[in-house]
Structures are given as structure tokens and as C-alpha cells.
Amino acid sequence: xxxxxxxxxxxxxxxxxxxxxxxxxxxxxxxxxxxxxxxxxxxxxxxxxxxxxxxxxxxxxxxxxxxxxxxxxxxxxxxxxxxxxxxxxxxxxxxxxxxxxxxxxxxxxxxxxxxxxxxxxxxxxxxxxxxxxxxxxxxxxxxxxxxxxxxxxxxxxxxxxxxxxxxxxxxxxxxxxxxxxxxxxxxxxxxxxxxxxxxxxxxxxxxxxxxxxx
Length: 214
Fold this sequence. Notes:
It is a single chain. By secondary structure, the protein is an alpha/beta fold. The protein has 10 helices and 8 strands. It has helices at residues 19-32, 40-45, 51-59, 63-80, 92-102, 113-122, 144-155, 169-177, 192-197, 207-213; strands spanning 6-9, 16-17, 87-88, 104-108, 131-133, 162-166, 181-185, 202-204. A 6-stranded parallel β-sheet has the order 5-4-1-6-7-8, with helices on both faces. Strand 6 (162-166), helix 8 and strand 7 (181-185) form a beta-alpha-beta unit. The model has no long low-confidence stretch (mean pLDDT 94).
């Protein structure tokens, strides 16, 4: 079991299932541009990384031409409608209060900070976290490694006293670049193969396993 630590939680795929929220807003943006949306599996693969990266694979060769407009349309729908379709994993209401007893909890998400704060507050989950960190709407700190570095600096935390908890390889790689240990979770959108290849320090199947580890 880990000693008292600072636990840095990813949002999409770790604390919540954003698929309906994400896909609804993407479909709206595609419709506004008169384009056919990709299959659900392609949309699922884009959950986690910043939208600036996902739009490249979503639009293909048209991302240079339409990328900025697509992101603006997606964000407007997501802010007004999409984020209210989030589905937080029910286990967190039991697990996070237990973790709060021993650890300091933070959110470190690739979702832009204003949207992350809005969705966590709307669903009453912000109460579990000391602070929420995410990139700015203009893309500043969209790279998760930069975001974690900023979090460490702002909170005056020591990397060895922190653990990043996420479901995708970019969570693990960002932690490694900042000399932070990592826990990969398998209830999100990343596979065991992805997390093992990224060299997560630990991989857990369930929230119960995470509680046992932490």
C-alpha cells in the first residue's frame, strides 16, 4: 500500500465515461460542416488526448483547412449541451472519500480547464479535489507533460510524492517525463497492452483494486 501521496487523476476514462458527451458534440460539429462522422470505434480512440490532436485523425487531410472551425463548433456544443451527458463512474463516490482520508487529490486532465471545472462542479464531484488542472482554451499546457510540470510547480509538490492515475498511454508518458509514478486503470479507454507498453508502474482492473493499492 502506498504511503500518503498526492494522487493526480485523469478525468475522461478515469473518473468518468465521456463517450456520449464527446460523441454527441463531435457529431454536431460534423453535421455543421456537412461531413460524415467516423465510426464509434474511431471516436472512442480519440478520447483522452487534447482535441487539437484528435482533430488530426478525425478530419484526416482536411484538418489544416477545417480544424480550427471544427474545434470551435465542437466546443460550443460541448459547453452548452455535451458536458451534461457525462457519466461519472458510481464507484468514485465511495472510493474518493476513502482516498481523501490519506491522500491529497487533484485532477490533471487534457480537457480545457473551464470545461473540466464546469462538468465537475455540475455533477458535484469537485468537492473531492484540492484543485483541478487542465489546459487553457488556447492550447496552453495541452501537452499533459507540461500540465503536470505546471501542477508540480504551482502546488510546490515533489515528484516522488505524486502518482498519476489514468487510462491512456499519454497519462503514463506524461508522468514519466516528470519523474512521477503512475497507475494505469482498465475501466477506461486504454487496453492492458497499451498501458503495459507505456510502462505504467501499476495496472488495476477495478476501483477496489485501486483502493487496495493506495
